Amino acid sequence: PRSALVVKVFAPEPYYVIAAHLISDDGDWAEQKRVESIEQLFAFIQDRGLAPVILMGDLNANRDSLTLNCLRQKGFFVINDLDPAANSWPADHPEILLDYIAVYPAESAECLEYYVVDDDHTSDHRPVYGKLRFHSRECCNPVE
């Protein structure tokens, strides 16, 4: 359930961006669906040899959820881990984090800047900002 958009950015060294919006229901069933979505996205990345990849969006999962742990186990660097106190929802008084930026493979980029934008008017979520620098391609071979 929900959606993901995969885009190839034709930079001097191309990279991929996946914008995702995962199911928002509560409970074990919904969490399992989010994990399945991450597994499907990862299989897509692996099958096509996509790297490096930036995955971003409303994952509707807490930072210590099975969904985020699945991302980490697959070899993603979750940028939001740099500031465990940053929350994005609800926008008017953020109490939890639902919106993420992650990079695959983890060592393919470094985060130069990360924060949740102080904006409570654009959406019911606050935007998440990340400034990344990719490393050389030698480190970007997909993890088996």
Task: Output the keywords.
single chain, about 140 residues, alpha+beta, five-stranded mixed sheet, 2 helices, about 20% helix, about 30% strand, globular
Rough outline? globular
Q: Kindly state the percentage of residues in helix.
A: 10-25%
What is the oligomeric state here?
A: single chain
**Structure classification:** alpha+beta
Using only C-alpha atoms, the radius of gyration works out to: 15 Å
Largest sheet, in brief, is:
5 strands, mixed
Terminal-residue CA separation: 27 Å
Strand content: 25-35%
Total number of beta strands: 7
Helix count?
2
Please provide the ordered H/E string of secondary-structure elements. EEHEHEEEE
Q: Looking across the biggest beta sheet, what order are the strands in?
A: 1-2-3-5-4
Mean pLDDT, all residues: 94
Low-confidence stretches: none
Verbal overview:
It is built from 2 helices and 7 strands. The protein has helices at residues 28-48, 66-73, and strands spanning 2-9, 15-22, 53-58, 77-78, 99-104, 109-116, 128-134. The protein has a 5-stranded mixed sheet with strand order 1-2-3-5-4, covered by helices on one side. Strands 6-7 form a two-stranded antiparallel ribbon.
